[in-house]
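Internal tracking record. Fields below are filled automatically when a chain is submitted to the structure queue. Please do not edit lines marked as system-generated. If the sequence contains nonstandard residues, flag them in the REMARKS field before resubmitting.
Queue: standard
Priority: normal
Entity type: single polypeptide chain
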Amino acid sequence: MRVVDSIPHESMSITIMQMNDKYQVRFEAGPMEQIFKFSVEEVGNLEGLKKRIDATFITTTRKRFNEMFLQLRG
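SYSTEM-GENERATED OUTPUT FOLLOWS
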């Protein structure tokens, strides 16, 4: 697996990796991480994947991190 790109964000690390016919997008915030997997067939190429990881996708992921944090602390 190799890192092919990243998406800048003020509160999360967003890394795009590729291996064979799959992309993995890893979101990291503190001690937590979320990984989403996409087939190249599904998104086409790196630019297609980045279009899929839009502001709404990132906002939803950030909200999920908040829920995870509350669960971790609870």
